[in-house]
Structure prediction request, 234 residues.
Amino acid sequence: MNSKAPICRVTRTKEEAKASYDMMSRYYDVLAGMSERKYKVAGLEELDVTEGEVILEIGFGTGKCLEALAKSAGRSGKVYGIDLSEGMIGVSQARVQKAGLSDRVELTQGDAAELPYEESFFDAVYTSFTLELFDTPEIPIVLGECKRILRPGGRICVVGMSKKGRSGLMVRLYEWTQFNFTKFVDCRPIYLVDAIKEAGFKVVSVIEMSMFGLPVDIVLAMKKSGLAHNHHED
Prediction:
């Protein structure tokens, strides 16, 4: 790990992040929603939710994926969502209500570093362009919480900006912008696959994509159903 280029730190507070997303919530689909859409759809396809499953989405934003997840889980399933921003919750609740899915979706305002759910409660976890918003020391905490609330053999799909060995020009430019304007650009590339493996998940598949020259990985992994503390298996 020491030979890798360091990950940029997140210096803005969670209060600043919450205020920023509250402010953006009504316009987020216009600002970023369109550019992120195809990666989120690819992530949903990888997760492949089926009828009757209980799903959690972390950082659901304006709720487009919540709607898709609720349709896949069907009447016998249930989708839970957690997001830091009350503004995003308002937008998402309106979307879910309009789609007639309110009885299948339960939303909570909160922090993914302290998930308010029981152990082994979920069949699957989905999160897109969210894990890289957490400061570096919190990333393993969030993934540890995901592992705790997943049932043995449960799966997680993470869509995120991924830092590769040698950074291309676009990544360096993006990281410079993020470092200098962190209150506006709070997302940054992280070693996504490594982080998921180090949290003790078994990586099932990795789809590598690109967004404006920035690497995006879609990682599907599962919680091992054997010994919970075995971190050495690839």
